[in-house]
């Protein structure tokens, strides 16, 4: 079974990422592989881990974590085979909290697959471009298909003039099929990379 984490990449109060992640999980439940029990999806919320700015003395590549929050985060990420990163776009990039969470770990990310669901004024596409570069350095294989949710077309707001209104996710009809294609790729790549993960795990032990 392929285990996929839907990572909520924003910790900001009032973030829209929670609603987006909820939509991803609900829609993913209709994916054939998930319905058949060949894959599972689970939401992982960065806000629940309380990670400070990177405070490990030893670089993550050495795997010598000293802080309990790092060990807890590492245990969670290590348990998954692939990821869907849900990210907004902040100033043409990903949220600092997401980049910080990536930087805490190394081996736990390695030889796994990832896809992206982004949102923002421009659909969050520029955040994903930076995210792809960061994930390449920790040896995550990112798939080509991504879901982009422009706030003007894929959200509904009670008060469009209220910047604190998180809105409701109302994706266009094309978004779920796109999400399914992305999940197809994540599941296939996660399975293909499994021998590398097994080899790395046996070497580490």
TrEMBL record:
Residues of the NADPH-dependent FMN reductase-like domain: 3-152
Cross-referenced Gene3D superfamilies: 3.40.50.360
GO cellular component entries: cytosol
TM ranges: none
GO molecular function, one term: oxidoreductase activity
Domain of life of the source: Bacteria
Pfam families referenced in this protein's UniProt entry, alphabetically: FMN_red
Record's protein name: NADPH-dependent FMN reductase
Native species: Carbonactinospora thermoautotrophica
């Amino acid at each position: 079974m392929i285990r996929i984490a839907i990572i909520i990449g924003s910790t900001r109060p009032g973030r829209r990422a929670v609603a987006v992640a909820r939509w991803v999980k609900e829609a993913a439940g209709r994916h054939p592989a998930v319905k058949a029990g060949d894959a599972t999806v689970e939401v992982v919320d960065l806000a629940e881990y309380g990670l400070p700015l990177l405070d490990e003395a030893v670089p993550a590549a050495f795997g010598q974590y000293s802080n309990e929050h790092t060990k807890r985060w590492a245990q969670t990420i290590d348990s998954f085979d692939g990821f869907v990163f849900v990210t907004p776009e902040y100033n043409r990039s990903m949220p600092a909290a997401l980049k910080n969470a990536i930087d805490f770990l190394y081996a736990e990310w390695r030889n796994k697959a990832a896809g992206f669901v982004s949102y923002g004024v421009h659909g969050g596409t520029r955040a994903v471009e930076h995210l792809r570069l960061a994930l390449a350095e920790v040896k995550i294989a990112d798939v080509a298909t991504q879901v982009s949710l422009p706030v003007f077309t894929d959200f509904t707001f009670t008060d469009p003039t209220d910047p604190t209104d998180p809105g409701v996710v109302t994706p266009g009809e094309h978004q779920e099929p796109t999400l399914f294609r992305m999940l197809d790729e994540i599941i296939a790549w996660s399975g293909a990379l499994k021998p590398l993960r097994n080899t790395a795990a046996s070497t580490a032990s």
